[in-house]
Amino acid sequence: MFSKEESAKIRKEFWTSFGKSFPRKWLLYNTKIKGFAFKFQADRKKAFVCLDFEHPEEVANELLYDQLLALRKILETEYLPEVIFDNAFQLESGKYIHRIYVLHEKKFSIHNKNTWRDCYEFFVETMTQFELFYYEYEDFIKQAI
């Protein structure tokens, strides 16, 4: 078991190490669509790459999510076959959002440095595919709002 401070230090080291090992400018929040962002997530039990819909206007979230649902087959067949669409994903805060994500299937814990390399490679491969998909269909996605 780790203290809160030790856990925070390990998390910081995980993300710093990722940035140094794979120095690259990721798309993430720079989609130019409010509340529509790609994210890397990692904790004590799992890691995933996701696309979150958190526009302050719920109608915009619905429209964007529906637009991605229209592209679902393309995303699954050409980019990320293991992608999961969740229209009611609950954040730790209790808030529900729409989330499209890919889960890292290998054993992982942010507290176990032996699992970091596989996770980093998963992050790079998966986010690259998500970005390629987004850039290809960006105009279509933006038509939603």
UniProtKB/TrEMBL annotation:
Pfam families xref list: DUF4268
Superkingdom of origin: Bacteria
Name the record gives this protein: DUF4268 domain-containing protein
Domain DUF4268: start-end pairs: 10-137
Organism of provenance: Tenacibaculum jejuense
InterPro entries from the UniProt entry: DUF4268
